[in-house]
Write a structure and sequence with these properties.
Elements (H helix, E strand, L loop, with lengths): L1 H24 L3 H13 L2 H11 L11 H13 L1 H10 L1 H4 L6 H23 L1
Length: about 120
């Protein structure tokens, strides 16, 4: 009986994890980028692998600070080739969370749009 409870708990956990990932995916390309970074940081081995490409981590966004999304975005853009390499190597487990050339272009536009807000926030 105990083993069945553990299995059912694991299934619920997987289902919740998938629902959370899907909710970010519906946010568009920023959601896809978020899911990729979460995937990278979901295990020590994946984090270490990505750090071997870049020498650093990409910061993960949070709900408390709007600029955490901006920092995640600009670091991802800076290490775009490493992110693409990671995506290629983990395509099967990333599912629909890959970034096309058009996605990267739009991410660049978003970062350019958000840059003045970062400056204004610092001045205030």
């Amino acid at each position: 009986m105990y083993e069945e409870d553990k299995e059912s708990e694991k299934e619920l956990s997987k289902k919740k994890k998938k629902e959370k990932q899907d909710s970010f995916w519906y946010m568009g390309i920023l959601g896809k980028l978020h899911n990729i970074i979460v995937h990278i940081r979901s295990s020590a081995a994946r984090t270490k692998l990505f750090e071997s490409y870049t020498g650093r981590r990409i910061p993960l966004d949070n709900y408390m600070r709007w600029n955490s999304w901006f920092y995640m975005l600009i670091i991802a853009l800076e290490y775009r080739s490493a992110v693409n390499k990671y995506i290629e190597e983990n395509l099967l487990t990333l599912l629909n969370n890959s970034l096309t050339l058009q996605d990267w272009q739009l991410l660049r536009i978003i970062s350019e749009f958000l840059a003045p807000f970062k400056k204004a926030t610092r001045k205030l």
